[in-house]
Predict the 3D structure of the following.
Amino acid sequence: MTYPEFDRQKLRVLPLAERTNKLNIERDHVPVDAAPNPLSKASAAVVAETTDRIRSARDDGRSVILAFGAHTIKNGLGPTLIHLMKQGWVTHLATNGAGIIHDWEFAFQGQTSEDVRAYVDAGQFGIWEETGRFINLALRVGAWEGRGYGESVGAMIENGGLDIPAADTLLAAAADADQYPDRAAGAADLLAAVRDFDLTPGRIEIPHPFKQYSAQAAAVRLGIPFTGHPMFGHDIIYNHPMNHGPAIGRTAQRDYLRFADSVTRIDGGVYLSVGSAIMSPMIFEKALSMAQNVARQAGGHIDDHFIAVVDLAESTWDWQMNGEPPMDNPAYYLRYCKTFNRMGGTMRYASADNRDFLLSLCRALEA
């Protein structure tokens, strides 16, 4: 049976410059040397323990993975993430689709965060030309070039544009599906964009005057994995006609497998989950299972990993001492804590604002 689908070609897509935004990166960014608000005694102890574990992990060449939700970017912490990368404290960053978008919008126009209530009421939420066109096109180009989701967008920011191959080049690559099926599929998808949107082959200049605030661009410069882990329909780029599921699938799959590869080196390492209630615990548990599978085949086991979970929800439950709480205890429904507590190793939970935690961590690491 055939079911009807929404036709995005009917949408009235407006220029991003017409959108009113809540956040301005020049005004709202947090300098790395900004003073954090004091943490609770328990959260300060988590910072201290995390600091020691990160230092040990880096001395031993183990992974230090920082996974975070979009509010870390919205709160102006791009400079802090860049500092942690530059100083060699983190080896991998991971975020969701919204984190990718906010980082890009800050780099492109210096602003982000629309009024969801008002724009949904007006039928305009997420229906903006540049965000939808450029991010989706970057993913199509990245799928063709063999990049991951975060790297595709980060490279567009860092390089100030995208390179569109000639149609003949893409057509020839698409015909070579027997030898290079993934590249051929990426070529076909990009060729469809060239034809459907009348793209001229060659360089598309896309200036990003605020790219110094972009963690994605910095990751490309520094050669550090910055992976994007989107979910279909969760992000505003799905509203634009340029949006193309196969390109998202190819680039996001590469990023998941790159994330999983970093998790294979988490024994003796550190996993930081900052303000990500769903994406971070869900991808970590599957990636750790794969890493554990391979480790066990080699006669080993991943046991000495440290997990620091940071979120705003209050919790007095001692996960390390008492294990998983019963279902009649509200702490049971802190899903991220429950998931990470099941992952072995050592888990600590800090109830803290992401700004205060990350700034405090930076200070402790530099002390």
Summary: Strands lie at 21-24, 64-68, 92-95, 111-114, 161-164, 202-205, 226-228, 270-274, 306-311, 346-351.
